Amino acid sequence: MNDNNIQLQHFILNQQKRFPYAKGDFTLLLSDIILAGKIISREVNKAGLVEILGLTGHENVQGEQVQKLDDFANNAFLNILSKNESVGGVASEEMAEPDYFLKHTKARYCVLFDPLDGSSNIDVNVSIGTIFSIYKLLNEGECTEQDFLRKGSEQVAAGYILYGSSTMLVFTTGEGVHGFTLDSSLGEFLLSHEGLSIPEPSKRYYSINEGNYKYWNEKTREYIDYLKHQDKPFSLRYIGSLVSDFHRSLIYGGIFMYPLDYKNPDKPKGKLRLMYEANPLAMIAKNAGGSASNGEKDILEIKPSELHQREPLYIGTASFVNEAVSYINGGKK
User: DSSP state, 302?
Assistant: First the structure.
């Protein structure tokens, strides 16, 4: 092992010293999230060898078919975090309502998570991931729905675990963005990407599901055409797994977009979940020098009105996000 490869727990302990709210329980909470990630990573890596591929036959609260690995990942987080007395409750993309841990009378945090983002790619062996967000409770020892319905700017930590060619954890506590790669021979996450920042100027990449082109408004269609018909056109890079698409933007730069769609012309809507996807990734983007918007305002400044609220999302290199938002709102290039 390279002497420069710091173990994740040591790194967290050193960081924790700079935060007045953080005690040993914050380190333990992050360690529990990491443990859940390791368990999910193990299961993902043997998915073709055990009976865990395919659908459960149930739908989640969004009306989407639940994959067996979705269910496994959700239960892994629930089982681990329910035993952590610093956690007052959790909310998951897969659950209609939060799960409150009423016996945790000294709880200080609540956790939101998308247990397995990109699950539609599971059966074809494409990179998927886990996204998580941590808030400090408004009142210690008492977790209510209001602890979850808060602006992303109030997060104390956010991150994701990417299950790809290697398993990688990326997280921020508001003091930079750092990446750790799982060394399977040691069972440890080691520091591999310290102080990540989105390059500026960056690769001219855009990431969007162009299959929805006919459902966008005119300005959005014009903007995508504009990106493709410059002297130095942008290149399309789209995986269809938000964690993977965002991770590429974090490393190389570029912009990920999921604009409003007008499949129902009377009720145009966004696709991505504010609390489980947009907020945590926006916190990472901001701390890496990037930006995130719903097309009208900073993602981190949106006050949610419901737990499973959806929003459009433009995220990545700050100059690209600013340009996209300006264009779709009537600005000229």
Answer: -
Distance from C-alpha of 197 to C-alpha of 223, rounded to nearest angstrom: 26
Please tell me the pTM assigned to this model. Answer: 0.91
| Residue ranges making up the domain that contains 110 | 8-193
Residues 183 and 237 in one domain: no
What token pair was written down for 199? 């390059």
> Residue 139 belongs to a domain with what CATH number?
3.30.540.10
pLDDT tens for the chain, 333 residues long, are 444 578 887 887 777 666 655 567 888 999 999 999 999 998 877 655 444 444 444 545 555 555 678 888 999 999 999 999 999 999 999 999 999 999 999 999 999 999 999 767 777 778 899 999 999 999 999 999 999 999 999 999 999 999 988 999 999 999 899 999 999 888 899 999 999 999 988 899 999 999 999 999 999 999 999 999 998 999 999 999 999 999 999 999 999 999 998 988 888 889 999 999 999 999 999 999 999 999 999 999 999 999 999 999 999 999 999 999 999 988 655
Q: For position 233, which CATH number holds?
A: 3.40.190.80
Q: Is residue 297 located within the same domain as residue 169?
A: no
Query: 């290039």: which residue's tokens?
Result: 333
> Of 134, 159, 193, which residue is a domain's last?
193
Taking residue 184's Cβ as centre, other Cβ atoms within 10 Å add up to: 13
